[in-house]
Amino acid sequence: MKIYTQRLEQITQEQAFDQVELTFDIRQKSRFRATLNNGVDIGIDLPRTGILRSGSYIVSEQGDVLRIDAKPEELMQITAKTDFELLKAAYHLGNRHVPLMLTPYALYFEPDHVLAEMVKGLGLEVKEVEHPFEPESGAYAQHSHDHRLSPVKSIHHVH
Q: Do strands 101-102 and 107-109 pair parallel, antiparallel, or not at all (unpaired)?
């Protein structure tokens, strides 16, 4: 069984690669087994360095390259008549720290009927769909291990 152990930032155009579609839940894990699109079973054993985003590449010790794609899964889709209504839904779901995928015309989140009813109560349309899930990583995700960042200090002006 091939074991993929390292992330790649990019690949060359000529480089061949296999592909696998994985749900968001699986792409959050650093160790798991999967089956490639061609039916071959593989193992993943990566350092804990964050979520595998759709379009990411990983490599085995033998140099085999694998592209990770987001697998369509059951999601709730929110649509609205206006951009402002969609923005309101994003605000209310963000306040509940819900993993949320943003697109120009719809929001997507994992099935939760309580949240769906809340959004419907705001006057938006919510329906269940099959769609790849690539939620926003959050404003600080790319800096989560950067200890050089310090909290913002408030400045008091003396008059």
A: antiparallel
Is 131 exposed, middle or buried, given 0-12, 13-18 or 19+ CB atoms closer than 10 A?
A: middle
Mean of the per-residue pLDDT values of the chain: 86
Whose structure tokens read 């269940």? 128
Candidates 131, 68, 122; CA nearest to 95 is 122
In 3D, which of 115, 116, 119, 113 has the Cα closest to residue 87? 119
Domains of the chain from N-terminus onward: 2-70 (2.60.260.20), 73-132 (3.30.70.790)
- State how far the Cα of 102 lies from the Cα of 133, in Å rounded to an integer: 10
Listed in order, strand segments (DSSP E) in 16-103 are: 18-22, 31-35, 41-45, 56-60, 65-70, 72-79, 101-102
Q: Is the pLDDT of residue 62 over 60?
A: yes
